[in-house]
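EI: anyone free to look at a 99-residue chain?
SC: sure, send it
EI:
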Amino acid sequence: MIRFVAPVLLVLAFCSTAQASTAQCLANRPGVSISFGVTLGDKFSESDQNEFNLMRLRRMGVDATRAEMWGGCIRAFVRTPSGEEMQFFHPQSFERVYM
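SC: here you go
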């Protein structure tokens, strides 16, 4: 019985951790948010959105080499003095999210 229960509890623990970290990126940040809709041209493709996110991160001073959407967050590969590391950012506010 214990051999069956222990792996199940371990899997559930990992799943809840992943859900909690993804929830940080999907939650709205405090503050005022105003939106309206005007559409010109086609919607951004995934690669266009990734390039836009990369440009915005670089403009904020993040030395990112690549950015992509991952689990509701923006996952960026950032150059640091010790090498390159993954960092996660909120897609609306571009605040860093720690997982």
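EI: The helical segments are 2-26, 46-59.
SC: 👍
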